[in-house]
Amino acid sequence: MAERTSLAVRDLAVHFEMEQGTVRALEGVSFDLHAGRTLGIVGESGCGKSVTARSILRILDRPGRIVGGRILLDPGAPGETDLIAMNAESERMRGIRGGRIGLIFQEPMTALSVHYTVGNQIIEAVRQHSDLSKAAARDRAIELLREVGIPRPELRVEAYPFQLSGGLRQRVGIAMALAGDPDILIADEPTTALDVTTQAQVLDLLRRLQQEKGIALMLITHDMGVIAEMCDEVAVMYLGRVVEYAPVLELFTTPRHPYTRALLRAVPSILATPRQRLATIGGAVPHPGARPAGCAFHPRCADFMPGRCDVGAPPPLAPGHAGASCFLEVPA
Amino acid sequence: MNVLEVDDLKKHYPIHGGMLRREVGRVRAVDGVSFSIAAGETLALVGESGCGKTTVSRCILRALTPTSGAIRFDAGDGTVDLATMPKRAMRPLRRHIQMIFQDPYSSLNPRMMVGDIIAEPLKVNGVPAAERNARVLELLDLVQMPAVARTRFPHAFSGGQRQRIGIARALALNPRLVVADEPVSALDVSVQAQIINLLLDLQDRLKLSMLFVAHDLSVVRHVSDRVAVMYVGRIVEIAPTDELYRSPRHPYTETLLAAVPAPDPLRRGRQMKASGEVADPAKPPPGCAFHPRCPYVQDRCRTDRPELAEVAPGRWTSCHRAREIELAGVA
């Protein structure tokens, strides 16, 4: 991979201090984002995908706390910055948020206010990250709306979010994320709330924008179809760890972690035969506060090795290298 | 024999406007829907949000009163029309039509023990206590839950287990028809697979007749015998499941199928031919409601509304061009 590494996450650990005890939401997560490439983060609820996104942007809500690791912007470059070392409220972090790293939410209304027109909100975001005049920022807002495929943007700029359909709102959400001209985009389940034909259009849009602008895209989803459609590399997460990392084709053809294998077999398919049963994974994802000892997946694992998997945790993956964090990969 | 026959069902909502709040228009949420469900059959009702699929299911349950049309239901001792039945008269029929809900967190009373939740429909219908207990154990076994579950509260269970409890409650009275509204869409993939398999088992063992309302075309392919596709208040295609997926006969079905991302990177980049967004049911386009998005549109599509017609045995579609165009399915 010759692409520039835009962001490197290393050994990221996040805890939630709860009354019932400490919930270790992330336990040493590492990966890289490269310019012009899409990294998929896939996993079930509680795996830590959204916590990872919020940690990178330093918008983690209390009682969540980053307790270890580094989040390096422009790693290896002269201006390398560790986002964890920065004050989350500082002017500089605010500039990075939106200016370097844009965020697209599942529900675009999270990012939009009901009280202001779409245009005013984008103009505000544009001006926060540039010194354009109001009039120039307005032109830029219209240009952004056009870029994300909103018909008649010079009219829509005056619309309030509630006047738009779900698909158009998500396009506005994407325009908002692009307002500061970021080179890294984090999309957290960007199409989960959308209908399937709208989802296809929004995915097309994301792909086009990424290619045109050479953006490093981190796409968080629970949907293996979206992963297959969009990603270059994939990190599979389970209970706060990356359990497998692989180029997308490898992940689907030769999955190495038992969890990935089981997950792929459990996905309902548009190509199924009538009344086809699915392979299942026993049990359910445990609560992150009740993490099983050893490898957290061992109680549900088809390849569980007593005395090994329930004793120690398998070694974490070296960032950027395909593989599985599993004792099957480690000679006994 | 059919358990349910829906005939030209309509549910319209008036739009009021102006100074005198007069009716200025109508939202045609459901606008002339007809289908039937045979005994032991699962029919899926699919479509995107706002297509009217949930409104249809709520009319069948009589949570809504239809504007017009008939809903003929075989109650075992004769056929009744649910559409025109006074709400009071519905009461004795409710035991025959049961519902599985989408959200297993809000559909179970958190203050009731699981055993009582499952026994409630039995109690309401006068089943004696001793029989109730035996039946609860049988039902827990049927949905693969341990017997000890009955003395615990819903919060002790995961989403998938709660959905099993909801299914046990729905089956308590051996209903003649089960209406399942998005029963797996709130679940994680690994749990979703368990519930899909459970539904397949129950269909086989109990010969359930089921209306399966869903938006996820992958799930539908696994669990349904036939599929009805809805668009802006009307059914645009009905077909046996496998035929519908392999060779759709309505351009909207083709669009829907092409839009689903397949979990296979080698199939990447298939092109969805239709553009634009779902039409507003308050202002449906004239002619065929899909015509503004349809890649095969011709002049008559803009003015004449196509009726649902049988184009091959068991295959119904409402498209003027159904016999002349070749549509792509997913093998």
From TrEMBL, chain A:
Chief place of localization: membrane
Superkingdom of origin organism: Bacteria
Gene3D superfamilies: P-loop containing nucleotide triphosphate hydrolases
Parts of the chain that traverse the membrane: none
Keywords: ATP-binding, Cell membrane, Membrane, Nucleotide-binding, Transport
SUPFAM superfamilies (alphabetical): P-loop containing nucleoside triphosphate hydrolases
Entry GO MF terms: ATP binding
Topological type in the membrane: Peripheral membrane protein
SMART domains referenced in this protein's UniProt entry, alphabetically: AAA
InterPro entries from the UniProt entry: AAA+_ATPase (IPR003593), ABC_Ni/Peptide_Import (IPR050388), ABC_transporter-like_ATP-bd (IPR003439), Oligopep_ABC_C (IPR013563), P-loop_NTPase (IPR027417)
UniProt protein name: ABC transporter ATP-binding protein
ABC transporter domain span: 9-264
Record localization: Cell inner membrane
From TrEMBL, chain B:
Location in or out of the cell: Cell inner membrane
Domain ABC transporter residue range list: 4-257
InterPro entries registered for this protein in UniProt: AAA+_ATPase, ABC_transp_ATP-bind, ABC_transporter-like_ATP-bd, ABC_transporter-like_CS, Oligopep_ABC_C, P-loop_NTPase
Membrane topology type: Peripheral membrane protein
PROSITE patterns: ABC_TRANSPORTER_1, ABC_TRANSPORTER_2
Family according to the record: Belongs to the ABC transporter superfamily.
UniProt-recorded name of the protein: ATP-binding cassette domain-containing protein
